[in-house]
Amino acid sequence: MSTLRYGRLADVVVRELAEIKPGENVLVIADTGTPDGLAEAYLNAAIVGKAKAVLVIEAERILTDLELPASLAGAIREADVILGLCSGIFSRSEACIAARERGARILLTDPRGMEQYLIDGIVNVDTATMLHNTALLEELIHKGENARITSDNGTDLTMSLAGRPAVTSDGRVVGPGEMDYYPGTQVSFAGVEDTINGKVVIDGSVSTLGVVTQPFTIVMENGKAIGYEGDGLDLDRYKQHIAEQNDPLLAWACHWSFGLNPRAKVSGNIYEDERYFGCLDIGWGSQDPSFGGTLGLSPHHVDVVVLHPKLVIDDVVVLENNRYNTELGFINP
Ligand SMILES: [Fe+2]
User: Fold this and answer.
1) Could you tell me if 322 and 189 lie in one domain?
2) Ligand 1 centroid to 3 CA: how many Å?
3) Residue 68's domain spans which residues?
4) CA 301 to ligand 1 center in whole angstroms
5) Could you tell me the distance, in angstroms and rounded to a whole number, from the CA of residue 305 to the centre of ligand 1?
6) Could you report the average pLDDT of every consecutive run of 10 residues in the chain (333 residues)?
7) Which of 2, 111, 148, 245 is the most exposed place for a label (fewest CB within 10 A)?
8) Cα of 8 to ligand 1 centre, how many Å?
9) Do 292 and 231 sit in the same domain of this protein?
10) Distance between CA atoms of residues 24 and 114, nearest Å
11) Which UniProt keywords are listed (predicted)?
């Protein structure tokens, strides 16, 4: 029965999100924590689509465990389409980079704890309206020069985004070498690093730790975290986690992203939380070249979520209280 539950989802992922074609080598990667029936539904959908589909189930890994089993790395290197349904992040592995250079498409999610959102956020969402909002935000960011981000609980940051592209994650991979996370959508930019100043209150979640129950503040100067404010276990765990990675790049904010999926809730799973409608997701550490920033790649990356940001671009309010500005053409759920 569980495979049936995911049948429609798997069909949409295979046919619309990854546009899998007959004869393509499709690798579905699950792990021992993947919900029963989900990976099998993807395998079935790919086989029905006449792809050469293989399902690999690896041991559940933690988010910071970057080392892939050699057999899995080999399978990734040879696949045309890779559908990840697992907890371990492998997108920055050498095997993935090599596969993308060869033109492979990679579509990733971690379904644990968000099985229903995976269905709702793809099958039961108003996709046309979501893409309309996404295109509007992309245009505003693309044209924008200066941003101010505030929140009622103390966030207050300014930065330049002049010359930086808007980077959209629509949860689809249809061109050679594309990689994305899903369900979409999210629009991001990299603030010009040495112009980012102020403080940000983290009250949503942390990718590597889950839901935040005791909000804490990160103080920023010229793009870099220079201190923390607050007390409580969440801040202790966050500081400990950053220290354990021993990567200076994690002090730098590498992307500023806004969620646009009205079916996302705050579950503690970053794949859902960062798409929460009208939230801000800040990335730290490894920066994809598509952002046009100055930080570069590293093995480490952490995302943190601010639930109710106000975004002002060039003195125009774009977002407030999880509602995008309807006067600019946005359609709220
Ligand atoms: Fe991120």
Assistant:
1) yes
2) 30
3) 2-112
4) 6
5) 10
6) 86 97 98 95 98 95 75 95 88 89 96 95 97 98 98 98 96 96 97 97 96 97 97 95 94 98 96 98 95 92 97 98 98 97
7) 2
8) 28
9) yes
10) 29
11) Metal-binding
